[in-house]
Amino acid sequence: MTTTVLEVKNLLTQYHTGDGVISAVNEVSFSIPKGQTVCLVGESGCGKSAVAMSIMGLIDPGAGAVKNGEIFFNRVDLLNIKKHELRQLRGNDISMIFQEPMTSLNPVLTVGSQIMEPIMEHEIISKKEAKRRALELIKLVGIGRSEEIFDSFPHQLSGGMLQRIMIAIALSCSPELLIADEPTTALDVTIQAQILDLLRSLKEQREMSMLLITHDLGVVAEVADYVIVMYAGKVIEEGPVVELFENPKHPYTQGLLKAKPVIGQRQEELYTIPGQVPNLATLKPSCFFSERCEHCMSICKEETPSIQTFDNEQQVACWLYKEVSIV
Amino acid sequence: MENSAIIIKKIKKPTKTSLWGQVIRRLLKMKMPLLGLAFLLFIFMFSFIGPFFSPYINLGVNPTNINQPPSLEHWLGTDKLGRDVLTRLMLAGRISLLVGLGAMIMSVTIGGLLGIISGFYRGIVDQIFMRIADVLMTLPGLPLLFIMAAILSEWKVPTEYRIYIVMLMLSIVGWPGLARLVRSQILSLSERQFMQATEALGLRDVRKLFKHLLPNIIPLLIVSGTLSVGGAILSESTLSFFGLGVVPPDASWGNMITSANSLIDFQKRPWLWIPPGLAIFFTVISINLLGDGLRDAIDPNMKRR
Amino acid sequence: MKGQTPLIEVKNLKKYFGESDRFFKRNASIVKAVDNVSFSINRGETFGLVGESGSGKSTIGKSILRLQSITDGEVLFDGKNLHQMSKKELRDLRPKIQFIFQDPYSSLNPRLRVGDAIGEALLDHELCEKHVVEEKVKEVMEICGLSKDQMNRYPHEFSGGQRQRIGIARAIILQPDFIVADEPVSALDVSIQAQIINLFSKLQRQKNITFLFISHDLSVVEHLCSHIGVLYLGTMMELGSRDQLYSKPLHPYTKALISAVPIPNPTLKRERIILKGDIPNPSKPPSGCKFHTRCPYAIDSCKIEVPEFKEVEKGHFVACHLV
What we know:
By secondary structure, chain A is of the alpha/beta class.
């Protein structure tokens, strides 16, 4: 029996926009077992980043808030702990890396001092010891010349290098959970391959759990153990990676997989999902994908389907399968 | 046929999501700028319509009734020549506001035009205009105005033309800043992809300038134009206070405050200088509030997609 | 009809940045963004340019349409040298050569209604009568999958995919012979990306337009392009037809690039080539073969000698000492 590191239950995160209140994360539940990589996939605006921000408690209070639900990290309720306790957890037990490594580092501080910062913040060790650890971390993320890099400034390094530094900072206190929000989207393919390889091997070495947020199904297939597909703030399908890719059940997941051009599998015409993502402010109770779905039935436009589990651990929120099970 | 005509009409009707519609809707949600706008409307009515309701509008000097404190007949008292201060305040408002607006229109026209040309064509034209602007900006504004005004006094320009010349002087001091602002905006717009797109489409310069660049700097012109009205009113007041701008018998708020120059008037007859002082103060503050509000309403960073 | 006459010929194109820097001349470093690139595109063909950041692919795209000056070389459109034309000749040619931008958000003027944005070039070039412009705008909007009653809206009311359709409509309304599309789908979500890719396929089939398609995404390029060139640090590494390049890539960089693309199939076990190190700084490119610092097969001569760009089979060129 594996232990659960993170458990999210019925999370509801709402933002205020000019159009009204939108539920960026709408009753989302999932859990991350120890040592596993869970991927949140979806298109822009589906709420995948908002999930990460909710877990980290980083939602700008002026823009929105977690309205309902529970988030447990090793049975600690993250939504109901004191600010300083949360700060203690962040960076120490939960770390996060972002899409843009160029803007996530302070341009006037050396890379080395920025790696040492969280170590010295969370642990009582000498500066010398912290530096030794920092140099070790730089080596760990696959950069040679660690002394030289330690003393350089962010603008002297390339995007791929900086993302490695960000990973080094995230790993500095040996977190149990690493949240990576589109960590390779801003990078070139050959660099992306390096970073994904690094994340994979780090996870294995350290038995770290990872929540990887991405829009790229290729990346998901490479690193995930378990996949959660989001659409318009809702989880519409989830399951172990092999099952989900081999037998996608939700029409949206099927569509996404068919719509992506794949090397070596050229077709004359790509499958397309018609239309576009709905405006979150004007959603009515319905399957939020119904307007773009080719299997849309009358019930899809009236009621929101709940998530339903199949024998192979796959879970789907779609009326197509409810009908089957009722019959 | 009729049907299609109706449909076209429906489509042609500007939607409420048009950019200016958005600006106005946003502006209507702001309290302070609306307060400023309301006061400005009031001061315009006060100055331009107000005098018609005054029984003293055609009465000039009245030596029998000088330096009266406020009373039921003269709400703000009378001055040392026996003129009704309230009526004079209204008439002065006309001149001060006209000078402010006129100077603004002139400097926006000159500054906008030169800024656009400099930013768009660059090269030698840009160099010439910008060096002139630099020179004007390095000269201290107030002494420059004083010298120009002194020369005008020397040439004995008739008083009825003085107001126009004051406008011109203020715009000479005002345009360089605006031209630089517009130029830098044009330069940054030129780097934007949609300007590259006009190049790829092979559009004429005229269309690039008037269809693409101009609409994008109009918000800037409106905001800085609005704010510059306040500055012009202040400068006019300063000039007039020193007797170099609008000169008596024409009244402006600036030359009305001149009475505070005399110690007796300052101490004993506050009705002579407090009303014009307050008029300047509130008008300029209202203009600034409105200008700031406009800027916030237009600011693309606040615009949601 | 796919003829074999080249519509576009690029010969020894060079574009260096930083040389005319008057103020910082002392430590000005020349960046050879495009270094001696040659290729040609036949009429009706879609040529793909792939490469990572700093490869110079966008610079080539803009130079070909003379949206940017060049340092040296020639760009021939239908035999005419684009970079030696007068301003007037160039303007008259503009409708025939069009550009589609990467960023659908910034390539549209926020203060211009989309109908006007699509139709304005027709008016400006006096390509048709004023009263038929609206008809034509509606027609191309329909072709590009936009509803014609959206023509009086402003760009901010459209989503990214729709804006890219507007950009495409604006280009094809002029009935161009040649379109350069610079990463037209890379800013879009997967489901929208597929829609736009299909729109491109439709235009290829119906309009006999020649395309230069610039992308960093090898799977998109494979889908749309019949011929492909692979760039690295401003130099063409390999060039060939789609089948030549994807079935038997010869250059180690092409191989690595293809194998680095993640494939959405978790059970597929591929042998992956993970390149070491970073893309070098374009202002200090490595000597010899520019790829030797990351090449797993590099030999000594790679560091010294620049490999010749040679034809190994008909239409398949590669610059590598090992081939």
